[in-house]
UniProtKB/TrEMBL annotation:
CDD domains associated with the record: NGN_SP_UpxY
The keyword Transcription regulation appears for this protein: yes
Organism of this sequence: Leptospira idonii
Entry keywords, A to Z: Transcription, Transcription antitermination, Transcription regulation
Domain NusG-like N-terminal: residue ranges: 12-98
One Pfam family it belongs to: NusG
Protein name: UpxY family transcription antiterminator
Keyword set includes Transcription regulation: yes
Single GO BP term: transcription antitermination
Amino acid sequence: MQGNDPIHSERHWFVVYTNPRAEKKLSRLFKKYKIEHYLPLVSKKQKWSDRIKTVELPCFQSYIFVKILFWQERVNVLQLPGAHHFVFEKGKPAIVDETILFGLQEGLTNHSESFEIRQEEALQKGKFVKVISGPLVGKVLEIEKRKNKVTVILRFPMLNQVATYEVNIEEIDWEEIQK
C-alpha cells in the first residue's frame, strides 16, 4: 500500500525518541554510520560544589531528528544502541518541516541569548509571514510582534513543545500570508 505517498519516496526529517541521556552518544553513532541527523544543543552553565562549567545540553531531552527514507531505513536507526522508537502522530511517523529545523538552528546560532523552549499550550498562535530579507529569507515562519522585537515561534506539536527566540525588527522584512 505504498502508492505515491511521499513518505515512501522522499527523505524527510523524523523524530527519534532516545533512551534517557543517550542523545549525544546516538548522535556520534549516526555520524559514524553516515545517517543524516540533527541534535540541537543549547549551552547552559552548570554549577557544582567546586566549580561552574558551561555544558551543551540537548534542547529536547530524549529526542533527536533524523532525515531518512522512513520505511527503507528505519531499522538502521532503531538497531543502534540508545534509539528507542520513532515518534508517531495520528498513526503515522511524525514528519518535521525542514523550515522549522532551519529556524531552530538559526535561533540557536544567532539568537541564543533569547532562545527558550516551552510547553506548547503556554503560547498563543502568532501570525504567519514569509521572510523577504535577512538570514531566514524565503522561509515561512510564525511570529509574534512586540514593540521593536519580533519573537519567532517554532512549533513541535509531536513533542508538545515550542522553541522561541527574539530578533530585532530591523533584522528581517516579511510579508504576511494566510495559513
